[in-house]
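Kindly go through the entry underneath: sequence plus fold tokens. Please state briefly how this chain folds according to its tokens.
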Amino acid sequence: MCMSSPAAEREGPARKRERHLLLLGLPAILLLLGLFAWPVLRLLAMSVQDGTLTQLERAATDELYVAVLFDSLQIAGLVMVICLLLAYPVALWLTRAGPLGVALGMFALLLPFWTSVLVRTYAWMVLLGRNGVVNRALRDWGLIEQPLPLLHNLGGVLIGMVHVLLPYMVFPIYAALLRIDPDLSRAAEGLGASRWSAFRRVVLPLSLAGVGAGCALVFVLALGFFITPALLGGGRVVMISMLIEQQVRELLDWPFAAALSAVLLTVTLAVYAVINRVSRSARLATP
């Protein structure tokens, strides 16, 4: 008579649990496939509907579109770095603040989500215009004589995009910091490490998973931004999403718009993979 081992007995319930969880998540998986995967596949098929790779080759090699894609990557990278520099101190403060501080901080982070991106962008146009609130205040205080060019340039676009995407960087880092046992830092300081050394060698390495997740999320979202750069850039700051919209709305060239979207999707996935690899390598290499 064959006797089952304890390991096999434990494996049986585990596999049943996995199957049950898969069945519970199956409706959501099918919904995501229907709403996201199928449209993406149709988009990719549209880019080669003539049976050739002409549209994809044009999208990937034309100097104009390559330059705009490179500029979009630079802008997304700048937004990611600025959000990281601003978000990490905020997330660290939230983990050490009292209940009132955490409540106020979360309220400030969640408040922008209650207003659409379009309304927030128009608000920044009111604030940053030549006769906007900021320039009028600076003139009234005697700090400037001529209005500062805060709108229709890269600076204005960065301000608006960082404002929208900052919470997406704060929350992953905050979640990673919450999982770190505070006793680890206390133990490091008790063994003679300074507060900065304890943060650099204990807290920072353990929070790199949240940093990587936040960087990937912010970069991917920034790369596909349309409303904010279109309004705050005033046509002087062009991103790849704006060219895709132009191909669809003005030129009615759906195949080429699909080809540009396919190139953007490929670049986004490649950069996402690089960010994840760098984040993983940094976590492993940090002492």
